[in-house]
């Protein structure tokens, strides 16, 4: 089952052709999927298969600039508890941008947007924000709880 | 913000998929923004207020 319609796939491809300039690294952490709605804690993953298809579609939209690694946490040890987790990074750097859960609906748009920002390095923030961020001396972790509507 | 500053890391959590995390961080409405796993605020704020709120919760003094 395709997650994205042909039209959306085409749109993403066109946007990426325009907006992407540098390489990005996507890493998806998954576990073998399950169609069961209720799963014992730590077993299976209801949305991993969908997440995998979604990020594969993203990667196919700009295969020269987007590298995708898929890591099955049931096989390979990883410092990731929640699956699916998608990490976005500059190649060779630790990821500081993550999505926990299937980034569907509006969240998918935030993934597309973030891929473009990381690729181009254009954060799109105001000068005042950049100045404010320059006052940081310690790492800050920001979690945003959202729903995919 | 994470693109603009190497000191910022950002995680978006699908609240329905991870009820344990949602409960742990007191999620009743979305978007709920949790800073350094301690302070939090609710609602999509405009950029200046959002940045102020995050920095305040992170313990960064406002400009002199």
What does this structure look like?
The complex is a heterodimer of chains A (149) and B (64). Chain A is an alpha+beta fold and 149 residues long. Chain A has helices spanning 6-19, 48-61, 106-120, 127-133; strands at 24-30, 66-72, 85-89, 97-100, 140-146. In chain A, strands 2-1-3-4 form a 4-stranded mixed sheet, with helices on one face. In chain A, helix 1 (6-19) packs across helix 2. The model of chain A has no long low-confidence stretch (mean pLDDT 91). With 64 residues, chain B is α+β, with helices and mostly antiparallel strands. In chain B, 27% of the residues lie in helices and 23% in strands. The longest helix of chain B has 11 residues, at 47-57. The radius of gyration of chain B is 13 Å and the shape is globular. Chain B starts with 7 loop residues before the first strand and ends in a 7-residue tail after the last helix. Chain A binds chain B through residues 46-47, 82, 96-103, 107, 110, 114, 117-118, 121-123, 125-126, 128-148, and chain B through 1-18, 21-22, 25, 27, 30-37, 47-48, 51-52, 54-55, 58-61, 63.
Number of E-type strands of chain A = 5
Q: What is the typical, i.e. mean, pLDDT of chain A?
A: 91
Helix proportion of residues of chain A, in percent?
25-40%
Structure class of chain A: alpha+beta
User: What shape does the CA trace of chain A take?
Assistant: globular
The biggest beta sheet of chain A, please? 4 strands, mixed
Instruction: Using the CA coordinates, give the radius of gyration of chain A.
Output: 16 Å
Spatially, the strands of the biggest sheet of chain A line up as 2-1-3-4
- Strand coverage percent of chain B: 15-25%
**How far is the first residue's CA from the last residue's CA of chain A?**
21 Å
Class per helix and strand makeup of chain B: alpha+beta
Tally of helical runs of chain B: 2
